[in-house]
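[DERIVE STRUCTURE TOKENS]
===
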Amino acid sequence: MNRRFVGLAALAVVCAGVELVAGRGMSPSAVWDVLGGGGEVTERHILLQLRLPRMLVALGAGASLAVAGLVLQSALRNPLAGPEVTGVTPGAVLGAVTATALGLAGWDSPLAVVLAACTGGCVGALLLWLLAGRTGADPAQTAVHGVLVSAVLGGLTAMVLLVEPGELGSVVQWLVGTTEGRVWEHWHLLWPWALLWGTAVWLLAGPLTLLRCGDDIALAAGLSAGRARTLALLCAVALTAGAVAAVGALGFVGLLVPHLALAVFGADLRTSLPGAALLGAVVVCGADAVAQLSSRILAETLDAGRLTVPVGALTACLGAALLLVVVRRSPSHTF
């Protein structure tokens, strides 16, 4: 088991290194010069003030979304649960967009955006519970209800943008999902939030493992299933909100990475939760590195200097293909 963690940690370091040297503005040799203490002022600014915080934000957001997805799937005992298809991510996007686009009083700080996203995520989760919470034993049915809730919340987001169309450029980050333009302010906001709620999830690892086995077994072990599930869902919403406020709606990370974590680390969440965090960090950071390399190649090929490929587009395309595999292999009953 330790070898798996070490291997994933090494892979995360490799992805982080590739992301630092990828992209436009400076060559890989210039990156090494800056890391060695040299380099020009402009090169030092690009690496230390732009690329480094972007890389850290990608790692933190990926870890947060993966842990949130594993918590949702365990608490709901539904392999198709995830922030993207349970209304949590669309609700968080709606909250962040509404607070930003409409310029609500007092909602102009980064922390306020996170709180608005958290409120929206709670609203999305509540809507799903109202539709399928009492009869949500069927994973496919819950997934359908989640798609309906997500569609409604997405429509509300579009209505907000119609009211304030001039704000479209400032909120597109939450609609697509991107790490472009992330600076130290985003990282300083993300890491304490993720650490706080990630620690809370870690403390719930034992109860969540029991919930995966069923409410009857949890009750027989003396666990209050309803209270544990409520606390777990709150943590999942908070982690999702922090990631969404930082990088936007990265598609399918929270839905599919937990399946990989369970396959690699097993059903004991005391090990699979940190494993999911590492896997999520690797997936998002690696996807962002690929996005930067793709943007660089396309810009050179098409002579379009401002062309960028958002990381959310890559995770959505890859996740959609993997989701088909998961759905086809999932049984009709909960696991």
Notes: The CA atoms of residues 128 and 295 lie 37 Å apart. The mean pLDDT is 82. The longest helix spans residues 41-76. Residues 2-329 form a domain with the ABC transporter involved in vitamin B12 uptake, BtuC fold (CATH 1.10.3470.10).
